[in-house]
Amino acid sequence: MKLCRADKVLIAGGAAVLGSSALLTATPLAVTAAAFLMVLTDGIFRPSSSVLYPTISHGPRDRPRVALTFDDGPDPQVTPSILQALAGAGARATFFTIGRHLEKHREIARRALREGHEIGNHSWMHSYFQNFYRTNRQRSDLDRSTRLIQELSGSDTEPLYRSPVGLKSPALARVAHARQLKVVAWSLHSHDTFTHDAGATAALVLSRIAPGDIVLMHDGHERDDQHRGTAAAALPAILSGLRERGLSSVTVSELLRP
Ligand SMILES: [Zn+2]
Q: What is the tally of structural domains in the chain?
């Protein structure tokens, strides 16, 4: 089997560290090890990093289109109002759903699909420990969500994947590599998880938005008893701001289509 990028990084880093310790090269061991650690840290923690696996964070910058994305739903208290606002504006979006929420709220996903939106895979568990999962566990978590999304969409296309909190691990990279997954991060974070101020969220997005951006927002919460409504409240202003700027909102797959 061809090695995935994460394994090449680990092997190359390990070899560089071993090499500088064995050969007593001009580069002191500590410097080599620190450099390797920095590269690895970037690969794990920076959502748009492609160190461990090629990661999409935006689309073409030369077309007047953006992709709004909503994570952690579906949430029956929030997602329907987002769908209503999108329909009113003739806009499409992508929902990176948590599998265990999707299982409970299938009818919301069916409606989203009927209305032209895209459902992406945001893991089944969305566990705080997801990035420590070994390869087999990553695979079964990811597969479980993929199967449900495919059942709902009636398509055997592999859904786009966004990892919880945008973290990546060598184990995830191996699973993604084997499936040739499209892993999607974002180029613009709406900061809707840090505030309940919908006006501030809309203002932040509209002050920074540029053609090709993939915007991160939330329609759900990883905890069943919590809800995130800031993006839903900000959405009407964001959609009218996009219209004023001549930007159309499409799904991530549409944004990436040549
Ligand atoms: Zn999430």
A: 2
